[in-house]
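Let us work through a complete example step by step.
Step 1: write down the sequence.
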Amino acid sequence: MTELNMDYNSERPDLVIPEYGRNIQRMVEYAVSIKSKELRNQVAQAIINVMGQLFPHLRDEENYKHKLWDHIFIMSDFKLDVESPYPMPSPQQFQEKPERVNYPTNDIKYGHYGQILEQTLKTLVNFPDGEDKDRLIVELANMMKRMYITGAQSTISDEVIIRQLKEFSGGKIEWKEEWTLSTADELVPQQVVQNRKRKKTTKKKTRRKY
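Step 2: predict the structure and record it as C-alpha cells.
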C-alpha cells in the first residue's frame, strides 16, 4: 500500500503576512526565483493585481498601491528585484521602535477624583460670586462624593469632602453653612455599591481558583 506524504501547515514556514495566505506567499517566492527581469516585472505586477482584488477595501485608503508594493517586498524578504513605481523600503523601517508617547506627568493627589475635577475646581475659583457659582460648587462637591463612593466602594463624611474641596481650590472656596450635600444613598444607591463589591470578591476567588 502506497504511503501518503501529508503536508501540514504546522510543518511549513511561517507566513510573513498571514492575511494574504500561503498561495500569495508562494507566488512572491516564485517571482524572486525568476531570472529574467522582464518576466519578473510582469509576474510582480500580476501579483499586485491579485492582492488588490483580495482586499478591495484597501482602495479606499490613501496610497493603497504603495502599501501593496511595500507588502510584496516584505513578503520577499526584500529580495524581489523589480522595477517598482515606489522605492523598495528597507528592513530597518519596519524594525524601528515607535516614538514614545508623552503622557501627562502631573501628579494626581486623589486618583479616584482624577485630574479633570481638580482643573475644573481651579477654574471655578475665578467665576464671579453669585447663585450660579454657589450651585456649581455644591454640584461639584456632590460629584466628588459620588466618585469617592463609587471608586472606593465605601462612604465618606461630608466634612472630608468639604476639606478636600477647599484644598483643591487652594483655600479659595469656603463652604457656607446653608449648603448641604446629598446623602450617599441619593448619590449612589447601596445596591450599586454592594454589586461592585460582589463582583470584586468574585474576581478574587476566580484568580485563586486558577
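Step 3: interpret the result. The mean pLDDT is 78.
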